[in-house]
Structures are given as C-alpha cells and as structure tokens.
Amino acid sequence: MATRRTLPLKTATQLGLMLRAARKAKQMTQREVASLIGLSQNRVSHLESHPDELSVRQLLAWSSALGLDISLGERGQAPLDSEKWEW
Fold it and tell me: Could you confirm whether domain 12-68 is CATH 1.10.3730.10?
C-alpha cells in the first residue's frame, strides 16, 4: 500500500504552488486541467499564480482532476476520520 502524503496548507500562495506541483507531477498541462474543469488555459495559469481568486467549486473540481483529496483538521492533529462525523 502506498503511503499517503499530506501537507499542511496555511496560505493561498502555498495552494497555488501545490496545485502547480501536483499538475506537473501528473505530467499534465494547464490546457489539460482547464479542459477537465471547464476553464481556459489562461485562467488556469492565472489561478495558479493567484489562488486566492479560486472559488470553492473550482478548487474541488481542480482537486478532483488531479486526483487530490482536501482534508480539514485542527492544527497539530491527525486528519479527521470522516466516518466518525454525521453529514
């Protein structure tokens, strides 16, 4: 079983860097990501540099396109176990 790597995210700048790094690790172009999430290549380029302008909907679509999960948890704690929560 592969080890899951999680990274803490504390700034919008980090988010942009993480999205770019994940895209490149998957050997995907901005155009390919744009096509999957319904944006133009220019917009993907802009959002990688200005991630504070991403909507939650765009972030969720982008994460899905790159095969990423988004997790929330208290700082310094292990990620929350979603099976223990009522949705």
Answer: no
Amino acid residing at 40: S
- 39-58 pLDDT, tens digit each: 999 999 999 999 999 999 99
Rounded to an integer, what distance in angstroms lies between the CA atom of residue 28 and that of residue 31? Answer: 8
Q: Which long-range contacts (CB under 8 A, 24 or more apart) does 30-38 make?
A: 33/62, 33/65, 33/66, 36/61, 36/65, 37/61, 37/62, 37/65
Sorted by where each begins, the domain ranges of the chain are 12-68
Report the pLDDT value the prediction gives residue 15, as an integer from 0 to 100.
Answer: 96
